[in-house]
């Protein structure tokens, strides 16, 4: 078993653990939770022996194989499939040994031993298993052959996750595995982890994901590790009961309960008998019950809305949505009225982000109309919103730029609800964590008082307490909301209705999230069946051709290569441009990270570098889109 006894640890002058004890038995699946910066990732480093504690004992069984998910991946020309295969170190070693043994004078006995070992570890199915992992994580067949360097940061994190899952392990350590996953990939990962036979420790801020996977929770509380039996919901109830018994917190707890119960009453009076409304009502009742578990949360804020509004706020009429001449969604009819609350559902790549970009005005319809109300005020949180922050500015300065006449105290009071208290409002964004940047981006959005919130994966990098505060704030937001999220708890408590984005359409969905989960599993099964049948048909077509046609086959293959040569040359050219763009972006990021740049008097240079960085990211994104389009053309031509 894993045994931590009397462990104390300081990092950067902060005491993360003080005389902490914790025991985790083999085969248990444990969620590790706590506020950002409390030491969750540091705990993993202790278990990996990358770090030593200041005192106490950290014991992990000596013979255990440990798999862990790296948070960064260097750009390389290696294919995605090979990168994931490298997760199984023994398999890769055996492959190299076999290749070496077969290239020299054959040693039959040695070859036999190697093949026997390959069979024992199920090594021959390794490439197929790696391909299945990549498929589950949202990589297409063409993507699996792409170089790692051609993927964006979020997709590279998915590759790290696939590599960790590929590793045969007795102990698996996963740090925020769902941060860059959409809902279908998250559901697939849930099922995979449920079948995992070893011991699992997983850091996650997705409560529904934890509920589905873990059977215990380790919570960082006051420099100690407290172990709770059951999933995250059981932890909330147990902690709420414990806190409710503390007299010093009693009045604050009752105020929180009264606040939640009042909201439930007001919502109950307005709720129709529709399935979505009733489902949300039950969720809100549950939120009131577990409110004391979040009584010591540092986050308390609301989302004010613009005083003026229009009806409708936005109206899409017969809109074809996408890039270039090939739309991903056709004939979209969608009107967003004041107070409407919509969750966008759909499989990976179906067009959810394209739809929300079109609503935001960042993407023009290929055909059709986007009509805006006179008093439309959009608050748009994009997946890459954090990159738009000025790394040299403080949270206070970000808001002062928006409202130069606002008093410093009012701005500080507002930022305090998002966890920026005391001198933290003066610190530059450069040193912020991903969670702190996400909180600031939400604060900037809220300060502008929108009447329509467009949120594309707003919970990435947010911890559980901030997600809880955001859920409460969105529940009471009086404006309209359109939301894309893999966080089912947020969806259930924010959206009153769903739109299903799939098969080139965006249409109302009458079911709830449990119905959608079953629909999505069936959709993915059907897609895999179609892909398998197509591969089998292609294989059969090749087998049926007579031997005498081999010359004509070769001639046809040569003709096809010649025909596709312009596309393949263009693809190589784009890959070279991508490599140059990535190099330029890395140079800009390195320059922006130089502390001497912010010593004073270089504001124009900082602004210029930020503009160049933004432009270079746009260039890289456009090149990636071109790469994908040409790759799909090549794949289609070869299939024909």
Please tell me about this protein's structure.
This protein is an alpha/beta fold and 640 residues long. The protein has four domains: 2-235, P-loop containing nucleotide triphosphate hydrolases (Rossmann fold), CATH 3.40.50; 250-294; 314-518, 3-Layer(aba) Sandwich (Rossmann fold), CATH 3.40.50.300; 580-640. Helix content is 48%, strand content 18%. The chain has a six-stranded mixed beta sheet, with helices on both faces. It has a six-stranded mixed beta sheet with strand order 14-15-16-12-17-18, with helices on both faces. A three-stranded antiparallel beta sheet has the order 2-1-4, with no helix packed on it. Helix 10 (250-270) packs antiparallel against helix 11 (275-290), helix 16 (464-476) runs parallel beside helix 17 (488-494) and helix 19 packs antiparallel against helix 20 (603-639). The longest helix has 43 residues, at 550-592. The chain is globular, with a radius of gyration of 27 Å. The model is unreliable at 271-276 (pLDDT under 50).
Give a quick rundown of the structure.
The chain has 640 residues and is α/β, with parallel strands linked by helices.
Structural key phrases:
six-stranded mixed sheet, Rossmann fold, alpha/beta, 4 domains, 640 residues
Distance between the termini: 55 Å
Mean pLDDT: 81
Number of DSSP strand runs:
18
In which order are the strands of the major sheet placed? 5-6-7-3-8-9
Radius of gyration: 27 Å
Characterize the biggest β-sheet: 6 strands, mixed
Q: Please tell me what the overall shape is.
A: globular
| Helix-strand category | alpha/beta
Give the second-level CATH assignment, the architecture of the largest domain: 3-Layer(aba) Sandwich
Into which percentage range does the β-strand content fall? Answer: 15-25%
Compute the number of structural domains: 4
Q: What share of residues is helical?
A: 40-55%
In CATH, the topology of the largest domain is named Rossmann fold
Oligomer: single chain
Number of helices: 20
- Considering the protein shown, what is the CATH homologous superfamily of the largest domain? P-loop containing nucleotide triphosphate hydrolases
Biased composition (Basic and acidic residues): 530-551
Organism: Microbulbifer taiwanensis
Coiled coil: 84-111, 557-640
Pfam families: ABC_tran, ABC_tran_CTD, ABC_tran_Xtn
